Amino acid sequence: MAEICDYEGSSYRTDFWEGQGREYEHLAERIALRKLLPPAGARLVEIGAGFGRLVDLYDGYQQVVLLDYSKSMLRQAQDHLGRSGKYVYVAADLYAMPFVDSLFDTTVTVRVLHHVQNIPAAFQEIQRVLMGGGVYVLEYANKRHLKAVLRYLLGRQSWSPFAPEPYEFVELNYDFHPAWMNARLTEAGFAIGRELAVSSFRLPLLKRLVSPRYLATLDGLLQGSTAPLKLAPSVFVRARAEKEDVQAEDRGFFRCPSCHGADLIEAEEVLTCRGCGRGWAIDDGIYDFKEPAAL
Ligand SMILES: [Zn+2]
Questions:
Q1: CA 187 to ligand 1 center in whole angstroms
Q2: DSSP-based three-state secondary structure for 259
Q3: pTM
Q4: How far is the CA of 294 from the centre of ligand 1 (A)?
Q5: How far, in Å, is the centroid of ligand 1 from the Cα of 275?
Q6: Residues near 178 by Cβ (< 8 Å), separated by ≥ 6?
Q7: Which of 42, 141, 265, 294 lies most in the core, judged by the most C-beta atoms within 10 Å?
Q8: Are 271 and 124 in contact (CB under 8 A)?
Q9: What CATH architecture is 12-250?
Q10: 219 CB-contact burial (10 Å; exposed 0-12 / middle 13-18 / buried 19+)
Q11: How many A from CA of 190 to the centre of ligand 1?
Q12: pLDDT tier for residue 7 given thresholds of 50, 70 and 90
């Protein structure tokens, strides 16, 4: 069983994003996501959606599922996105997502794999919930970025950025080698598509001297051409699920994470699984699949 990085109750939004000098990265990530994301579709899930930082990019989708392990982050997303049927808020573990097979045409993970201990298990689960030909847009932190390579070559860093295995620099924080990552995607049944190099200008001095907007525009211009070098701190990939299955219109939506049955009865405050009898709370518009509810 893999450990989960839990942002429950964290002030991620204010501590990490707002007024913290990350405007350049935020804008550069949006440019990359816009390039790789199919612009429209029936249903998209963002895994690790947090407070919904990127959700406006999904306007072309009929339904958007925000999945996160932290209910408090989903509550923040709900506060600004509202309670229309377009957005579905789901608190769950990404290794055991409460969805039937082939439910989504698009899945997204940005700044999430960074905290994922068991990448093969996560990729397998993401492939399961994607329809055949569905698109997975992912971002990961690259261990062989330019600064790490230079530090290593100058003897200022002990670990090799060229070694394939993930590098855990702080507990539950991983940087990945691009070749290792692509091999795991292929193993899980994905075809690798376009790749982008993102946040190449993550240098404190440059960020102080140049406006975030200008830096992000420049980043956007170079994301495609510099991708083959694999020297950026952040890499975006568009992968495609290689399987026959078409979209699961008539197979329901939720699946019990305990017994995998798809026969769940929804009442006002609880989803009850007819397969195993467990209940899953619906807490003021947030579906909570983290622990079975006391019935
Ligand atoms: Zn069940």
A1: 29
A2: coil
A3: 0.93
A4: 14
A5: 5
A6: 142, 144, 195, 230, 235
A7: 141
A8: no
A9: 3-Layer(aba) Sandwich (3.40)
A10: buried
A11: 29
A12: confident
Q: Per-domain residue ranges for the chain?
A: 12-250, 254-295
Q: What gap in Å lies between CA 147 and CA 83, rounded to an integer? A: 44
The model's confidence at residue 2, banded by pLDDT at 50, 70 and 90, is: confident
Residue listed under structure tokens 């919904």: 52
CA of 195 from ligand 1 middle (Å) equals: 39
Hey, what are 87's tokens?
A: 């957005």
Rounded distance between C-alpha atoms, residue 184 and residue 290, angstroms? 26
pLDDT at 1: 58
- Residue 11 banded pLDDT, cuts 50, 70, 90: confident
Q: Which amino acid is at 240?
A: R
Give the separation between CA 90 and CA 80, rounded to whole angstroms: 16
How far apart (Å, rounded) are the C-alpha atoms in residues 252 and 75? 25
Q: What is the identity of the amino acid at 15?
A: D
